[in-house]
Design goal:
This protein is mostly helical and about 325 residues long. The chain is built from 13 helices and no strands.
Length: about 325
């Protein structure tokens, strides 16, 4: 990547007034509420009777994905800007995405495991997201030998903690309570909210970057390739860990999808709503990687789900 291309990418910005930011926050919380509607206490009880897959899922999402994302960013070298590397690390530090449960149902995967992993990673995100981003972000700046050019990455812990609790924690609790006490209402709302979450994120990305459309289109091939390879890495981590540890096929599919679909919407809100990069130079690369990941993982999730579906169909025809 040339210096000029990196500058074009970093010049991309998102202009949101207080009203626009509040709207995104409310809708993202509503989406998380929709995810939690599929969670019931008995779901956790059934899944934790065999905790192996849950522990492997946490290993993939919280430990391996951030670590390998950091290594991939280093491997890209000068092919990407440091801000794009920060976008990769931020996405990897976020919890599982809110459409992973929907993709798991399409894939005939273990939906109970998917819901449990999303809930657990979301609950832990209050601690794991800022920690992983701080750790691997600073390691990247150091090992990429650009720490002297870029300020030290400091995380405003209170801002991040407050944002995650409000956007994810409270809706998660309310959704579980609704599922437990009003199961019929939860069942009626669950599917419409899943589709709404997909449409909302795409609309949010399109509207946010509309003012930078020319710059975005000039650099899309770089952004597309980085996110494609990063997402393939995430999917491969889930599949390989599940295969190596010989978990059931449905669980292996869930690990693949859960690791490959991240809550990049939370990443965007953290970038736009907190002071993480207050002292940094322009960081459009972080924004576009985080935003494009949110669009691309829908495409890749549907592709993987289709592959699993066709695999089942071929096997059923052989019988």
């Amino acid at each position: 990547m040339t210096t000029q291309t990196a500058r074009i990418i970093d010049s991309i910005s998102v202009s949101l007034n207080a009203g626009g930011m509040n709207t995104i926050n409310i809708v993202l919380a509503f989406v998380m509420f929709g995810v939690a509607l599929g969670i019931r206490p008995k779901t956790f009880i059934e899944v934790f009777k065999n905790p192996k897959s849950v522990l492997l899922g946490m290993l993939c999402q919280i430990v391996l994905l951030p670590l390998f994302s950091f290594l991939l960013a280093l491997a890209f070298g000068q092919s990407i800007s440091w801000t794009m590397a920060m976008g990769m690390i931020l996405v990897a530090s976020c919890p599982g995405g809110n459409i992973s449960n929907f993709m798991s149902s399409l894939s005939k995967a273990n939906i109970e495991l998917s819901v449990s992993l999303t809930a657990i990673s979301t609950a832990l995100a209050v601690f794991t997201t800022p920690f992983n981003f701080w750790l691997y972000g600073n390691l990247y700046l150091r090992f990429a030998d650009i720490a002297s050019e870029v300020p030290h990455l400091s995380i405003p812990l209170w801002d991040v903690f407050k944002t995650i609790v409000i956007l994810l924690g409270i809706p998660l609790v309310l959704g579980v309570m609704t599922s437990h006490y009003l199961p019929r209402v939860a069942q009626k709302l669950k599917k419409p909210l899943q589709w709404f979450s997909i449409l909302f994120f795409i609309a949010m990305v399109v509207l946010s970057f509309m003012g930078n459309l020319d710059a975005f289109l000039k650099c899309i091939k770089y952004i597309f390739l980085v996110v494609l390879l990063h997402n393939l890495l995430a999917l491969a981590i889930g599949w390989c860990v599940g295969s190596a540890c010989r978990v059931p096929r449905r669980d292996r599919r869930t690990l693949t999808i859960e690791t490959g679909i991240q809550n990049s919407g939370l990443g965007l809100v953290l970038l736009l709503g907190t002071s993480i990069f207050a002292d940094f130079p322009p960081h459009g690369g972080t924004l576009v990687i985080t935003a494009w990941w949110g669009v691309w993982h829908i495409v890749s999730g549907l592709a993987v789900s289709t592959m699993f579906y066709l695999s089942d169909r071929r096997q059923s025809q052989k019988r």
